[in-house]
Amino acid sequence: MTTPRSGPNAQPTAYIRMADAGDLFVSWRWADDSAPPGVGLVSEDEVATAVRRFDAALPAPGRPGGLESALTTGELAAPESENTLAQSLSSTFLPYRLAEQLHELYLQGIRPHLRIQPSPRVAQLPWELLAPDPELRLLDIADLSVLAPTGIVHAPARIGRSWPDTGELPVVAILDPRIPGFRADSALGSVLGRMSADAPLTALVAGHAAADRLVPRVDDPLEAFRRTDVDRDWLSKVLCAGASRLLYVGHVTAAPPTSGHSDSATLHLACPAATPGFAAPQRDHRPLSARDLLLGTHTLTDDPRTGPQLWPIPSRVALIACESGGDLRFAEPLGLIAAMITGGAELVTAGRWPLPTDLAFQRLGGAPAHIHPLQDAVCAIDAAHDLPAPIPALNDWQRSQLAAWRESGEIQHSPLLWAAFATVDTR
Question: What domain range includes position 20?
Answer without folding.
Answer: 13-147
